[in-house]
Specification:
Chain lengths: ~400, ~80
């Protein structure tokens, strides 16, 4: 009897050992994948403090902005991102540069493209990214370059980010004009084109961003995002008018360098059930004299595993730049002056609703429908400017062809 | 001097929030809430567009907006 038990025991051990043998032909392999995001954004505003007409006059503006983003992940540790799009702009205020109704200045467009390459170091949890691109308008050309580093601790509790961006901008007009086809001149208001007001047409911006996120517990994550931004060159807009209290009119003039320091603090908390609370506080300081505070709160309600509805609200307050004064309130002896109400003392609020539908539905074996997002925001500034912001996006994934072998 | 006070307030608030809350170690199988799409720190395309607008219509640059120039924004 003992021999039988021994034989069964040995057979069991043998079979168990057999099933636990490692299949040496198996290798973990990350398959390449391409994510596609199609976005359409719409912006509409109206107000009565246009800087083009010296702080009075219409600010009516509409922007239609379609864009597409492709993210290709390959070899399990590399990612290539391409983003391109255009903003089609209808602006009543820039139409007042020459006071000729229905002129070419009524319509404008911005086209842009960016490319980013990210590589994840296999052993160190470090990701390195580089990027460049362009942004082109009738009176603006910008070349950005960026370098980014991200590190996640092995226990995935902390994340550190460091990125540097530089933008090299040229504010001359003429590239898209059929008569010039080259950057020719700065656009001044029609009645002020008798002299050259600016010393330069270049603007360079440098941004150093830091990011630190910490998982506090299984429901709470906190992020801190300090940043330094330095701009040098032509920081005023050449077609902005300024009216002085002696009835003189000149082109806006601002210092040729600006230091900005924004700091952001974010908390995301999974309240339980199906509710997620998100809070953001933003502090801002610059050497133009502006100090700003922003608080944004969002509650995301997961109505089902694939449906999310999130109302949000944001309050913002800023002090005025030292160089700001409204229409005809500037002193004639002022060194720097602007009547751009974006640099004035005001409060603003934004409120809106965000909707996400994420079915992760295979339309074919290689085509995955990820999500659909719709976001609407109403924005109001205490000087009377009102805006509506709408974004609609659809996300897909294109999966690789898989080979099945019948052994 | 006002700037220094603001900076101190912001930094003290941030550090207090992080330090005073005891960080609990979270194991991979406990990350179901943290891995939720809505818990991620990054901005969606819609939020990025709003930050772009805010960067123009307000004097301040929104923190971590990933953009401080690259467009006229002068309309």
């Amino acid at each position: 009897m003992k021999k039988i038990y021994l034989a069964i025991g040995l057979l069991t051990l043998f079979l168990r050992g057999k099933t636990q043998q490692v299949d040496s032909s198996f290798q973990k392999k990350e398959l390449p994948k391409t994510d596609i995001e199609l976005v359409f954004s719409y912006y509409n505003q109206d107000g009565d403090h246009s800087a083009v007409t010296g702080g009075i006059g219409t600010e009516q503006l509409s922007v239609y902005g379609p864009n597409v983003k492709l993210t290709h992940s390959f070899k399990g540790y590399q990612k290539l991102t391409l983003k391109g799009g255009s903003d089609f702009i209808t602006s009543a205020s820039t139409d007042n540069i020459d006071f000729v109704r229905s002129s070419a200045s009524l319509h404008d467009a911005r086209s842009y493209a960016h490319i980013n390459y990210d590589r994840h170091a296999k052993k160190t949890d470090l990701t390195i990214g580089i990027g460049t691109g362009f942004s082109l308008e009738s009176d603006y050309l910008s070349f950005p370059v960026s370098l980014a580093l991200a590190y996640q601790t092995p226990d995935k509790m902390r994340n550190f980010q460091l990125s540097f961006q530089a933008f090299f901008d040229d504010l001359r007009w003429g590239r898209l004009d059929v008569d010039y086809k080259r950057p020719a001149l700065l656009v001044y208001p029609a009645e002020l084109r008798f002299k050259e007001w600016a010393d330069t047409y270049l603007r360079n911006s440098y941004t150093l961003q830091l990011g630190f996120t910490q998982v506090m517990n299984k429901r709470l994550i906190v992020g801190l995002f300090p940043e330094i931004n330095y701009q040098k060159g032509l920081l005023s807009t050449p077609f902005h008018r300024v009216y002085f209290n002696d009835d003189a009119v000149q082109v806006e003039n601002l210092p040729d360098d600006r230091l900005k320091i924004p700091i952001g603090l974010r908390l995301n908390y999974f309240l339980g059930g199906r509710t997620i609370l998100k809070g953001t506080y933003g502090f801002y300081w610059d050497n133009f004299g502006i100090i700003g505070h922003a608080i944004e709160l969002e509650s995301a309600f997961k109505l089902s595993p694939i449906l999310t509805l999130a109302p949000f609200v944001r309050f913002y307050r800023q002090s005025a730049a030292d160089y700001f004064a409204p229409f005809k309130e500037h002193q004639p002896d002022a060194e720097y002056y602007t009547s751009d109400f974006d640099l004035s003392d005001f409060q603003s609020y934004k409120a809106g609703l965000y909707f996400r539908y994420a079915p992760l539905d295979y339309w074919t074996r290689r085509f995955l429908f990820n999500e659909l997002r719709l976001r609407y925001a109403f924005f109001r500034r205490s000087d009377g400017l009102v805006a509506h912001i709408i974004s609609f996006s659809v996300g897909y994934s294109l999966l690789p062809k898989t080979e099945h072998k019948n052994d | 001097m006002r700037i220094k006070h603001y900076f101190k307030a912001v930094i003290i608030t941030a550090l207090s929030t992080i330090l005073l809350s005891a960080c609990q170690s979270v194991r991979p199988y406990q990350r179901i809430f943290l891995n939720d799409h809505e818990m991620q720190m990054g901005a969606t395309s819609g939020q990025q567009f709003e930050q772009y607008v805010e960067g123009i219509r307000e004097g301040a640059t929104p923190p971590a907006s990933g953009k401080a120039s690259g467009g006229c924004g002068c309309n």
